[in-house]
Amino acid sequence: ALHRATENNYEKVLETLLNNNADINLHTEGGEASLHWAAINGHREPSSNTVVHLLLGSGAEVAAQSGEGKTALSIATE
């Protein structure tokens, strides 16, 4: 649910999940954490910055690598 909320830029859902102790650094089967999805979505939705701030403020691992070995920062700058 956390990844889906991040991917779709659902700020209120994301806030609710984070307030209920969702695992912020859980990776999908493909290796992406929520912060990776926020970086991917940032190319399509400039408003996703709020989602990024929510994730970072909740302790998302900035240096976490995706299944392809990419960090959220490297994805955001592609």
TrEMBL record:
PROSITE patterns with a match to the protein in the record: ANK_REP_REGION (PS50297), ANK_REPEAT (PS50088)
Repeat positions for ANK: 1-29, 30-67
InterPro entries per record: Ankyrin_rpt, Ankyrin_rpt-contain_sf
Keywords: ANK repeat, Repeat
PANTHER family: ANKYRIN REPEAT AND PROTEIN KINASE DOMAIN-CONTAINING PROTEIN, ANKYRIN REPEAT-CONTAINING PROTEIN-RELATED
Protein name per Swiss-Prot or TrEMBL: Uncharacterized protein
